Structure formats: structure tokens, C-alpha cells
Amino acid sequence: MQYTAWAKGIVAVAGLGLLLLGCGRTMTPAELAQAGTHPYAGRSRAQVFRAATLALRTEGYEIVSADEGSGRIKTAAKTIGAQAVAVSRSYAVATETSFGWSIDVTAKGNGAVLHAEPRGYQGSQLYEPTQMNADWLDRAFATLYKDVDANLPASSAPRETTTTSAPVAPGAGKKKDAAPVSAAPF
């Protein structure tokens, strides 16, 4: 009887591992190109490069390569989860899920463009971005861009101000942070 409950547990854990791989909607190459490209009008390539490097470090990524001359930044893959499957009563196999970024910053017109390419791994197997969960990737891109924005120097351009004559509720107008990246991407 104990063995039956234990076997059902193995099936449940194995099923969970299978759900994490390719579960949900994935992005098309066109959607990835759009999500991975973020313009920064009025910002120099050097400003965006430095802000992206700081953002990646803030998010806990190890920068393995940062070449300001070429505008290229590459992170090591960061462990974001792990799955374990029991193969017997005394032995289990664990596999890490990890994620990293390859970033290119280029000058364009009166600003810069950041192109972010996600890299995902299940164990040592590379998963193409088109195999990753689209909702998870949307949150990862949003978090990256929010952190890059936060690390840019204050803009010298005048900002628009608005006034209202009506009372404003407490907390109204506060910008909500992007959802934290927590679930496995594939």
C-alpha cells in the first residue's frame, strides 16, 4: 500500500516536470523580435549599455562578457528552478532550469536600441526562445526593460506636467511594477 502511494507521487512529480516543458502559448519569431527590441530615444548607446549591464547584475545575472565597443553583453545562465524525479525508492534525478540573456545595444538615429535574446536551458539542453512559455517571456522582458529604465541617468528633457482640480485617491496614478519572474519559462 505504501508503495502504491509512493508510485503515485513519482507519477505526479514526473507529470509536473512535463508540464514545465512547453506548457502554454509560445512566441512566434516575429513576436520574439518585437518583444526583444526596445528603443531608447534621446539616449546614447553608452548610457543604455551601462544601464543594461547594471540591470542584469541587479537581477542576479553574472556578466560573462561585456564589450562596450561592440555593444554586446552576455550573461551566464541563472538557475530559476529545479525538478526532481524519483527513479527508485532511494534514487532521484534532478534537473535544473536556467535562463540567461544575450544583449546587443546599437545606436540608431537620435538614440539607441537594445535587442535582448533570451537563452533557456533544461539541464544542459538549450531551448530555443520559440519553445519557451510566452507569458513567462513577456514578464522577463518587462522586468529587464523596467530595470534598464531605472538605471538610466535622469533625462534632461522637460517633462509634461498635469494638474487636476478633483481630489485624487491615495495610491492613484502609481505605476504598478512588472510582475516578478518566478514560474519556469518552458
Short synopsis of the structure:
The chain has 186 residues and is of the alpha+beta class. The chain has helices at residues 2-20, 29-35, 45-58, 134-151, and strands at 37-41, 63-67, 72-75, 78-88, 91-108, 111-122, 125-127. It starts with a helix and ends in a 35-residue tail after the last helix.
Description:
Strand 5 and strand 6 form a beta hairpin. The chain is built from 4 helices and 7 strands; from the N terminus they run ααβαββββββα. It has helices at 2-20, 29-35, 45-58, 134-151; strands spanning 37-41, 63-67, 72-75, 78-88, 91-108, 111-122, 125-127. By secondary structure, the chain is of the alpha+beta class. Strands 1, 2, 3, 4, 5, 6 and 7 form a 7-stranded antiparallel sheet that branches.
